[in-house]
């Protein structure tokens, strides 16, 4: 795109995908399965957040390239997404629903219920250079 420096990031769309994770229902309990093409990227890293105080906030960053799927394995929490122009809040509270967060989307997690566990499936391994940890820097680097 002419006139836009290469170091400027494109504005992320707010068309956020909340996907159904296939589940197998059984009288002994349900199983949710993430395999093959369940999510729109290959998983290279898995981690989870737990024992989070209800007043704590997590996230507070964007990724330049990495995509993530967030799932509330237990309890609930809110994910506040911001693309630099608008903000959207999504409550996660079902282990068979996942929120796909595209690259270049600011996210904050808050309002954790007691016992909440947030599973994160990421498209890449941890790389500090991929993080944008300051919101003003994030907004300054966005183009429309």
Describe this structure in words.
By secondary structure, the chain is mainly beta. The chain has a single domain, classed as Jelly Rolls, CATH 2.60.120. Helices cover 4% and strands 42% of the residues. It is built from 1 helix and 14 strands, in the order βββββββββββββαβ. It has one helix at 135-140, and strands spanning 9-10, 17-20, 23-24, 31-32, 45-49, 58-63, 68-74, 77-82, 87-92, 97-101, 106-110, 117-122, 131-132, 142-143. Strands 2-10-7-12-5 form a 5-stranded antiparallel β-sheet, with no helix packed on it. A hairpin with a 4-residue loop joins strand 8 and strand 9 (87-92). The longest helix has 6 residues, at 135-140. Residues 1-7 have low confidence and may be disordered.
State the CATH architecture. Sandwich
Number of domains: 1
Number of strands: 14
Task: Encode the helix/strand succession as letters.
Answer: EEEEEEEEEEEEEHE
Note the gap between the termini.
11 Å
* CATH topology tier name: Jelly Rolls
CATH superfamily: Jelly Rolls
How confident is the prediction overall: mean pLDDT?
A: 91
Class inferred from helices and paired strands:
mainly beta
| Morphology call | globular
Strand content: 35-45%
Residues in helices, as a percent range? under 10%
In DSSP terms (H or I, runs of 4 or more residues), the helix count works out at 1
Strands across the major sheet, in which order?
2-10-7-12-5
Poorly predicted runs are 1-7
- CATH top-level class: Mainly Beta
